[in-house]
Design a protein that fits this description.
3-stranded antiparallel β-sheet, 4% strand, 2 domains, globular, single chain
Amino acid sequence: MEGEVRAGLKGFQWLQRMVIGLFVAMLLAAIFVPIYTDEIGWRLQERAAYDGVDKLFTQLCGPDTLAQPPFWMMPARYYSAAFNSLFDSPIYVRISGILYALVWTAMVLVLVGRSARDARERTALATLAIGFLSIGTLPWLLVMSRPEQPIMLAWTVALLMVLSGAKVSAEMTTGRAWRRSLAILALALLAMSYHVKGVATAPLFLVCLLLVAKGRKAIVPRLVSGGILVASGVWAGQYWVHRFLCPGDTAARESFQASAGASIVAANDVSQILPLLAKAFGNISLFLYPGTVAPRALPMGNWLPLDQISRDDSFTVFLVIVALWTIAMIATVWCLLRAVRRAWRERRFDDRSLLAGALLAMFLGWSAIGFTGVYEATFTVPMLTLGVVLALSTHDGGPVFAKGLGWGAAGVGLAGLASIVLVLAIYGAPLVASARAGGYVPGQHLSITPFGYEAVRRDTLAAARKCGIIDPTASHGLLVDDLSYFPLMHSRLPDHRGGLLPPVIVTRDPIDYLRANKSDGIVSWCAALPPAMQARAKREGKMCCLAPSDF
């Protein structure tokens, strides 16, 4: 009997290695995934280290557009500026995203190791976690170089800190309590520095702060750190929200307020807020974000090639994803309910159950906001995955549940393996083909290839010189795109084409805006400009430039 158990464990470990190995290979294969415009665009929105202020794609929103971030956000701005200056090419955008995803994967495996009670459970939970993360296009979404990455890294480190202290003595020295509490505070401030989504994770950091240091000597450190965290969260929330209220442009404001969360923030009285709260409650969904990772015939913004899978096949994949998560959530709820009953009996909560509850609450809470971009899965599905893993690790169902967990994990692991093979079969060939030339990917007007950029850089600078833009640092208000940003990023307050020119809808004439802003010109991929601008532009290769006299 013991030999059979060992053989079963060994076979399970081989499955785990296969799942992890193919998942890592999928992350590395993302080097061929085109860089979506948001991966460049958000760099324009956090330029305080260059310009002294953060901004949006343009200054159309009016007085709220330019905003000086709180002083504690500046380390993140300096880091971003230093990294982008040292690695000023699209290929490094993708490489950095892959590296961060690999680091986070290692953290997940460490977290599983600290949560599981024995080797068999550790293998099952690791297979389950990586299996879910392998499904659909999620591995490639995880490498997107967007604010979700540093936020995810920050809260995962906080979870690891809590779990690392769970097995030590409840009482600790005052110094250690201060160090651990301040570390959680620093991680929370880091997350809130990058995006409003970081503010949404503040409750999770508060839970981590409650658990990371225990005993009488930890009361003051936790209270002080918690007070600073709450105050900083309010400060950060006001900073981020005010930037997006957009009083100067009706079209942009309406687009922002299409989500329930933004509408609530912009509401003026209770009569407006109550219907919006009802709408937000109705938005809550378990399957909104896990379902977005299914391969689609028409991916959002064409971030992947079009028409590579039929709608019927895409819906079939979606149904499989829904079925897997439904089973996982049934088991998760069962474990959490038993954890609550156990806590009532023992007069203490298991740290893992509290962390799981916080993660799942954040996941459901963000679904109420109503944002539906495919990259929202990068923010939410990792929360759901680790929430499920932590909840299942608290089970007390004995050998029967443990056996069921093993079989369930094996099923999810095999589904993850099959999904990786399927996604590579669907997208592999067109992605490799699109990487053969630099510039925008044909048929994907919001994506650029990571490769062949030096020729694009050369043409960008040559086109700029034809418009009198010799020294980018002496230029102001240049209108750039994803290709021209890096050579011209040291200019003053550049604007992004994606916030001004079609297909985006704005209420102000683009040329009038550029003149009023005293822009020193437009430098962009020629085909991305409206025909009238192309006709007046100076060209170098496939790059175009318009001087103010050409407006």
